[in-house]
Amino acid sequence: MREPDFPLIKCISENFIKPKHEVEESKQPYHLTPHDLLVLTAHHIQFGLLFTRPSHIKNQVFSIHLFLESLKESFSRTLVHFYPLAGQFVTKVDEDKHESVVYVDCNKGPGARFIHATLDITISDVLSPKDVPLVVQSLFDLNEEYVNYDGSSKPLLSIQVTELLDGIFIACSVNHCITDGTSYWHFWNVWSKIHQGNGKDTICELDLPVYTRWSPDGRAPGRAIAFRSGYGNSKDTGLVFACQGSEGGGSVDLEICLTPDSMDALESDKEFMAFVSQP
């Protein structure tokens, strides 16, 4: 069935939001883990929440202007606790060691993006079709043309609030290198609590993120010499896992899970095997 022709989305305003006040820890680089670096070429995490448009809030006639201002204010307060999301990536290259490091400069760039848009469709237009209509993609910023590594010049976090004819869609696009599913919804929940608090001190009630990594001195087993996957990671379609190489110097260890026929074909590829050393 042909999808109906929906109107184009209209961008009303675009703002960049910084943390409400300076965070001393934000002056230090926020380093990515080896696992974070694996998704530099992947896409952002994108989810949105659809609400009916209220007629009143707290006995007052609903005003989109006041609502947006309250969202931006609470967003700024939330970024105090999620300050890396207001920065951008920096890549530092060591030519002598032939190495490069990607980290977050928490004060680089204009901040997290906050977009206000309008789209003349209804909630039913979004929810009624059996398949999610393509117009829903326009409700998100940082779409498929961007990948995580673009965080060196694009915001790491972007909020888009879109007015529908009878609803409001709040979408959050965040760089996957510094968030996973758990921390993504953690951000949503903290922002929600701060917004509901109307500026009151609710910090003691919040489960805030911890950025200082720690391990007991002298008790860790040291650096792993290899990794192996279990049955759950062996798929018929094939999977490839990569981690920092045990030899160091920028090497990469690969564990390739393929069917026997596919593995034989891969090992017969002379060009591929020229770059592979057997364990």
Automatic annotation (TrEMBL):
One Pfam family named in its UniProt record: Transferase
Q: Which InterPro entries does the entry mention?
A: CAT-like_dom_sf, Sec_Metabolite_Acyltrans
Q: Which domain of life is it from?
A: Eukaryota
User: A single GO molecular function, which one?
Assistant: transferase activity
The alphabetized UniProt keywords are: Transferase
Q: What is this protein called?
A: HXXXD-type acyl-transferase family protein
Species name: Chenopodium quinoa
